[in-house]
Amino acid sequence: MKPNVNPDLDLTISRIIKAPSSAVWSAWTDPAKFEKWWIPAPALCRVATMEVKPGGALVTEMSEDGGPFQHHLSACYLDIQEGRRIVFTNALLGGWRPAPTPFMTAIITFADHPEGTDYNALVMHKDKETRGKHEELGFYDGWGTVAAQLAKLVEK
Predict the structure, then answer these.
(1) d(CA 100, CA 92)
(2) Which listed site, 31, 41, 95, 147, has its alpha carbon 20 to 30 Å from 86?
(3) Could you report the per-residue pLDDT of 57-74, keeping only the tens digit for each?
């Protein structure tokens, strides 16, 4: 299913990553690689749980300024298409359990491109206010920074 982008509710980021889609996929599905790019540096990421399957949990923690790790994200994978697409939401926790504070659903796609991988992230929100809040929190800077970190990791 190809999602319809609603500019009133959705935020998107795209870039060509000069590496094979298999490398980008691996960076999304291998916890040790994921920790290297998922949170803008110099903050550190730790993967507490990564069950890459529909209904599986994705739980990450972050440490800023070398301090103790704090909760960052609790989400549930909704759809996994090996090497092509990952859909997750923080509206649910692992095992399809409703989350206390739903915020967004993300659809990440990976397509072959003559220069490597056509990488797209679509982040959907329930209303304009939530979308606006995410944009104000720095969506483009944050998701753009981590996409650059992802590219740097896999373009070696």
Answers:
(1) 8
(2) 41
(3) 999 999 998 899 999 999
